[in-house]
Amino acid sequence: MTGMETHSRASGMRPRDSAENNQHNLSACAAKKQPGAPRSSSCGIRSQSALEYLITYSWAILLIAIFVTFLYLYVALPKSVTPSTCSFALGFYCDDIILGTNLTTHTTALALMLTNTQPDPVENPAIFVNFNGTNSSQAPCYPKYILAGGDIICEIKVPISTKLGGFLGGSLFLNATYCGFAENATSPSSCSSAAPQIFAGQFSSHAQSELRPSVTIGLNGSNDGKPVLVNTSVTMYATVDLLGYPLRGATVNFTENSTLPVLSPGFSDANPSGVAESFISSNAPLTVNVTAHFAGYNASYTIQFIEPAVTTSTTTIGSGSTTMAVPSCYVQYCNVVPLCTANPKCPVTTTGVKQQCTWYECVS
User: Fold this and answer.
1) Hey, what's the torsion of the CAs at 43, 48, 54, 60, to 10 degrees?
2) Where are the domains of the chain?
3) How far does Cα 138 stand from its chain's mean position?
4) Alpha carbon distance 202, 169 (integer Å)
5) What does the alpha-carbon distance between residue 340 and residue 298 come to, in Å, rounded to a whole number?
6) CB-CB contact of 160 with 168 (8 Å)
7) Residuewise pLDDT in 10s, the chain (364 residues)
8) Which listed CATH number (3.40.225.10, 1.10.10.10, 3.20.20.70, 2.60.40.10) goes with 215-306?
9) What whole-number distance in Å separates Cα of residue 246 and Cα of residue 243?
10) CATH for 85-209?
11) pTM exceeds 0.85, yes or no
């Protein structure tokens, strides 16, 4: 005998009567919902219970959905969509990381672009990595001397084979001399006396087609290749590009092949346009070669410093209506920086155009 039959007999109602009664109650609740029909307390209780159920358990359902999404994104989802990361505990900021694999040999190389975030320069940076307890060989980074805020390029061969899209992670160790511990933090020679430091970091990345950092550097002067009078300062512009884009923060080292000119500063960081500046002048006539160095790349520029030619008598220039007499107390040299257009004492033609020669007062 079923439970329903027992209940029906106890209440004096047959099973068929009970079913018909339930159906009648449902029909009655439906009828009560019609406009103008009186409300039923039993139907309202059922609706309220359903609403309370949804409110009570909606937060639990939401939390479960968030947890399932988290598991999918960080556990079940392939690591190929996880972004590359690179960081150091202190001392350096990782601007970019490239894990490259050779599509034929599957050899792996790691390239890093770092910024010196310390208040003083660092010198002789070198890097090695650790994969699953195995250290790579140490590789030098460039340049050798980096000002505060300057950029560093590191490239190292990794002792592991990878395929395109493979995901790897490991530890970074940058060995460098921090010049802040030296007697003179701004002197490269003094910086070498400080003890080397090891800066630890972490990285993770997916392998892509091997791409070597391509650096180009150019050097030009404010004299545009023209001779320069002695005691005149020339601005040197070194332009640094990485993969065809200006490299902000590149610490450029300027050198010259003579001890007579004054070249300062010897090190300069590139601005957002990738341009680093230095200045050179000489108090004696000579030809000097200036070189800009960055990350093993160099560019050179030649400057000729000259003395002005002095006239000892009145000189006549031009012809016809443009003839002018130049007093002997002036010195003349053509095609010399600064240009004649910047000198108010330059001779002027009848058309009001200044001659492309510079005239200077004699110095007694």
Assistant:
1) -130
2) 19-29+42-77, 85-209, 215-306, 309-361
3) 24
4) 8
5) 33
6) yes
7) 444 444 444 444 444 444 445 444 545 554 544 555 455 555 556 666 767 766 777 777 888 888 777 666 555 555 555 678 899 999 999 998 888 888 788 788 888 999 999 999 999 999 999 987 888 889 999 899 999 999 999 988 887 788 887 888 889 999 999 999 998 888 888 888 898 999 999 998 888 887 777 889 999 999 988 888 888 899 999 999 987 889 989 999 999 998 889 999 999 999 999 999 999 999 889 999 999 999 889 999 999 998 875 444 444 444 444 444 444 444 444 444 444 444 444 444 444 433 444 444 433 3
8) 2.60.40.10
9) 9
10) 2.60.40
11) no
Encoding tokens for residue 246?
């200006």
How far is Cα 313 from Cα 334, in angstroms, rounded to an integer? Answer: 18
Per the structure block, which two tokens stand in for 348? 């002027």
Strand order, beta sheet including 228-229: 228-229, 297-306, 286-294, 251-256, 267-269
Element (H, E) at 300: strand 297-306
Asked if residue 151 lies in contact with residue 247, where contact means CB atoms within 8 angstroms, the answer is yes
Whole-angstrom Cα distance, residue 170 to residue 357? 65
Q: Write the CA distances from 328 to 94, 176, 340, 342, 363, integer angstroms.
A: 64, 61, 18, 21, 12
Residue type, 228: V
**What single letter denotes the amino acid at residue 10?**
A
Contacts with 151 (C-beta within 8 Å, 6 or more apart), sequence order: 95, 113, 114, 115, 116, 247, 248, 249, 250, 251
Domains 85-209 and 215-306 share a fold: yes
